[in-house]
């Protein structure tokens, strides 16, 4: 899509473009002063400045170099704020002081310079020189604090969740939807010093967070709002109070969406709009959540049978969406036919940001004017104010590991500008692979919104298209997101009051953490306060450099506890495992039962609470009908859960569920509750409002019983499972777990830890040894049994160890036999270590990856005919016996170097990394290397061969004009060989690196 519009963009550079810009003018001395309530005027010659107070902590500064104030944004962005605050002013001789009860703005007279102070005298910011301007720009220059950090500027691809200090940030539409671009820019930034600035303009901005800080808008007028607050959340709140709170999406909008073209689709052949229902059936048949479908997502796609399609989707618990390529003129008719989602074309940016913002507002309002639904729009380019009417997504990209990497900091960073709903397409719309799709989907399930797009890639990209194990892993995460919708929806409601979204940088919750502003945490984020997400963004089964801030953190999958601040390396993350941690004290509402859609729930459906007890904690659940706008008139309910537990170690845990306050259509009058309480120790009893609940014997008895409890030692370090019969929601109740513990157990640190060394290999049908390391905690581990759960058709024999002394590690080697037909590549195993410690029977679990190795070659073999254990590529998949093609497999051309065509070889695109298994049976690798002739002379790369972690050969830098570089490499005894193509000039354009006639000589 982007390519069709890039040609419309022109950079204007006339004959004088290279000439030096004229020196800027700077505001002079104050020559007159006038006060009119909350508005103050300062005159400096012919220049006029105006200060207007909006609230006790929000005010506006305008400067008109020619004395005439203008306001191009008008009421488009800044909303009416009600009665202004009481203000006062004083003449201090060298300055005027303009004050509210919270802040004082100093206006120095000679020359006019501003500085902001809190009421207690603390300085928030100060100009180092007066406001300045040229013919087309205005600039403010501020002193930079010694430790001051900066955030915001909207969606900044590849950055934003760590500090902008020392960097230049552009704010404006550039149609660069990849790393380094800035779609959905917002002319707002905030400082760790306790203030924020919004430039009230449609003009592009440039922020240089150097020393000093200079912020420039491309217009000869200055207009900025300033916000002061005790913390960054407060500043975001004030900014979104002015420009609009984030909207509350319909609950189906928080489920994954699907987009494709079903009419006149050049990539898929002739289809019809009703064919979308067949794809919708795929979600149903594979038991996968999906909330909505765009059925015309392609240029010139169009649609037919709209009402019938909408009805069919609704029968499958999905809603109809349309791409507004042709504008909004027919929106009313489309909404009446059933449209509930509007995706805005990039053309809505039009001649300026106002057009984009108006498109968002008009589409949102059009849905609401013609139905009882909530407005729900998506846009790839927007401006301040768009948070109140739509989702901002980062545009069209190609799926790859690199795509995952740079997207991680993007969306949490956007939350610092009040953009509560930001995302990217799962695995992009081009390229990608089964593995990158699965890894990308995992972490995006902890964003509030996401979408998968088909029709633009070489093959469809629904989450069920890749077969096993990918389909099962994708289902697992889609259903986890569905289960977490009560948590996500409660945060969505919170954003309507605070402006703070679900995806958050660590610094927003841990502003005093010294790493929170740094690159050390760039590739992780918080989902609400309670989940820390550290996505895997390389083709690896491990993750390094996970920073856990202060407090206790629990591995979501194993229950292992960590005491922060700590950096976790070598985290075992096989394909089905997203590195995910939960904050101790978390009380998480969930929908149990593995449902596929919010519509599967009824008024009597159970509610679950997943509780990690530590000290005093609470969570307020928000509920409404999920789809209409009646909540705006008060049709909603809240229910508060409060937990009291020991700060550490043993004691009682009390869970109090308050009465549900409020009402809405479909509200539960009574419902059962499920509780999972992570204690690490079995309680002596569990009481519901003082009455003992029956202790049940195990999972089967628990499933059958109407209410009761049992302690599951094998689940995540030990959890108490409790279920109740249906209880009235208008009454509070208390659950008491006696003689148990805070998360981590009655004897903190007593639990053992299971780990597995990386890089373990097995052969199909051959018995091998799998190593599991068991480290005892602060108490001896006794009666230790180590077993490994394996895939169907595999075999494993448990081993026993009598005792592991406290603090020591013992390695257990478990005999494992893969199935004879086990596919080469990664397989996930789970080690379970059962033992006794500190008077409790306990279980430690660890998921880990082993690699099933293919048969090593027994004779000479082409590299393109081998199994590739891993294959990372800079664009699309690497090709066998073809040059690098587009986004699909087998779409390249004949391999050609220096006029010579090759039948065999590998066509790659930097940065590329292909791993093959030789098993020590080969002696020599040979190939002709170079940039394919199809590139026409440009590109610049280097080739290298690595064996078992050692670099054996590296080419010189190769350009598109270089002669072919032959490679002959001794690989004697090598088990694993990696063939790499690396970009060498910082530009990956044209980096089509060929391993022509790549061959191993083997015996």
TrEMBL record:
Top-rank taxon, per record: Bacteria
SUPFAM superfamilies: (Trans)glycosidases, Galactose mutarotase-like, Galactose-binding domain-like, Glycosyl hydrolase domain
Glycosyl hydrolase family 98 putative carbohydrate-binding module domain segment(s): 857-1002
Family named by the database record: Belongs to the glycosyl hydrolase 31 family.
GO molecular function: carbohydrate binding; hydrolase activity, hydrolyzing O-glycosyl compounds
Protein name: NPCBM-associated, NEW3 domain of alpha-galactosidase
CDD domains in alphabetical order: GH31_N (cd14752)
Family matches, as Pfam families: DUF5110, Gal_mutarotas_2, Glyco_hydro_31_2nd, Glyco_hydro_31_3rd, NPCBM, NPCBM_assoc
Keyword hit for Ribonucleoprotein: no
PANTHER family assigned: HYDROLASE, PUTATIVE (AFU_ORTHOLOGUE AFUA_1G03140)-RELATED, MALTASE-GLUCOAMYLASE
Stretch list, region Disordered: 644-665, 873-894
